[in-house]
């Protein structure tokens, strides 16, 4: 099956990037949100991106840019947005009850053939699929931030998904210019399962005073060839998200080494979330510059 009509739920950080990429790949895309200001903001960002990075750089003509924007519509009406979709990708906040309730509604609204996908980072896709009467057509599509740029999509296979659904979604991701990787619905999938131990050990090194976050980042960038150091990357991902990911991995493995490092708990208690509020291992200024945060006196 080809995906000709896509609906994206949630016009935030991830949703608008996925919608932009889909519209650019020739797919008729509807972006749904409960908040009209988020839809207006998303449309503005997408128009600006297309103008600046594609039309402005001569990669596409102004006419092609208009065609892309013409393929993208927005809505605050879930029924109107989803009733003709071949596929829906939800990118609403990371809350299991919210995602289950949306999947249950989508199951009633969408055509029988429609595939329902979740962009969850840490929640069980099988539980979200379980809120529908079509688990064989439910799947995880874990895009990475920024979604319009990052190449990887983890295609997450919940219990009961049909091979036909997986094949369709793998092809859809390729149509978007992404590289999809199949992974079973186990906490952390692949990327977070491997990044979380790195985040934990980096925090332990900082906590015990072996090296500063800046020294850890420099060492891993220059010694291991990582484009971002683990503390910078943890700031980028957000400590709240890392906490959820780490806790879900621990619940699965029950290994002591998979417990959340106390430093992240302390940072969260101190209201430090990472880059999203400008306070992580570093303090971030509005102009993008950063300064190492002194954890303890
Ligand atoms: N931000 C990341 O780096 C990242 C990376 C990968 C995956 N994810 C996952 O993607 C999902 C979305 O994350 P985000 O960072 O884009 O969130 P966000 O907070 O930036 O955006 C969420 C959007 O959903 C909207 N929303 C809230 N309730 C809604 C509802 N009932 N129906 C429709 N829209 C609703 C909000 O108005 C907001 O525009 C989460 O599951 C998250 O775990 C995030």
Automatic annotation (TrEMBL):
> What superkingdom heads the lineage?
Bacteria
Gene Ontology MF term list? 3-hydroxybutyryl-CoA dehydrogenase activity; NAD+ binding
Where does the record place the site Important for catalytic activity? Answer: 142
> What is the enzyme's main class?
oxidoreductase
Q: SUPFAM superfamilies this protein is in? A: 6-phosphogluconate dehydrogenase C-terminal domain-like, NAD(P)-binding Rossmann-fold domains
The record's keywords, sorted A to Z, are: NAD, Oxidoreductase
Give its E.C. classification number.
1.1.1.157
UniProt keyword Thylakoid present:
no
Answer whether the UniProt record assigns the keyword Oxidoreductase to this protein: yes
- Coiled-coil parts of chain: none
Which positions in this protein are listed as binding NAD(+)?
10-15, 33, 94, 99, 121, 145, 276
Biological processes annotated in GO: fatty acid beta-oxidation
Q: InterPro entries, from UniProt?
A: 3-OHacyl-CoA_DH, 3-OHacyl-CoA_DH_CS, 3-OHacyl-CoA_DH_NAD-bd, 3HC_DH_C, 6-PGluconate_DH-like_C_sf, 6PGD_dom2, NAD(P)-bd_dom_sf
Q: Boundaries of each 3-hydroxyacyl-CoA dehydrogenase NAD binding domain copy?
A: 6-186
- Which parts of the sequence belong to the 3-hydroxyacyl-CoA dehydrogenase C-terminal domain? 188-284
Pfam family of this protein, just one?
3HCDH
Q: Which family does it belong to?
A: Belongs to the 3-hydroxyacyl-CoA dehydrogenase family.
Q: What is this protein called?
A: 3-Hydroxybutyryl-CoA dehydrogenase (NAD-binding)
């Amino acid at each position: 099956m080809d995906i000709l009509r896509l609906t994206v739920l949630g016009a935030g950080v991830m949703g608008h990037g996925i919608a932009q990429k889909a519209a650019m790949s020739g797919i008729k895309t509807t972006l749904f949100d409960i908040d009209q200001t988020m839809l207006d903001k998303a449309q503005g960002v997408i128009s600006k991106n297309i103008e600046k990075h594609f039309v402005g750089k001569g990669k596409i003509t102004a006419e092609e840019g208009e065609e892309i924007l013409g393929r993208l519509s927005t809505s605050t009406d879930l029924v109107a947005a989803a009733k003709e979709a071949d596929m829906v990708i939800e990118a609403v906040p990371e809350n299991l009850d919210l995602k289950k309730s949306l999947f249950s509604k989508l199951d009633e609204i969408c055509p029988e053939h429609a595939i329902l996908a979740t962009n969850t980072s840490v929640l069980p896709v099988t539980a979200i699929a379980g809120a529908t009467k079509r688990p064989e057509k439910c799947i995880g599509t874990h895009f990475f931030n920024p979604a319009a740029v990052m190449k990887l999509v983890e295609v997450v296979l919940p219990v009961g998904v049909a091979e036909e659904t997986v094949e369709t979604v793998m092809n859809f991701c390729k149509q978007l210019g992404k590289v999809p990787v199949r992974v079973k619905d186990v906490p952390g999938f692949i990327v977070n399962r491997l990044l979380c131990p790195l985040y934990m050990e980096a925090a332990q090194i900082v906590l015990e005073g072996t090296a500063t976050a800046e020294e850890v980042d420099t060492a891993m960038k220059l010694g291991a060839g990582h484009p971002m150091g683990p503390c910078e990357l943890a700031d980028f991902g957000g400590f709240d998200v890392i906490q959820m990911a780490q806790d879900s991995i621990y619940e699965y493995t029950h290994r002591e080494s998979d417990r959340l490092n106390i430093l992240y708990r302390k940072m969260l208690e101190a209201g430090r979330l990472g880059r999203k509020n400008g306070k992580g291992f570093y303090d971030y200024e509005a102009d993008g510059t950063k300064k190492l945060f002194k954890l303890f006196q």
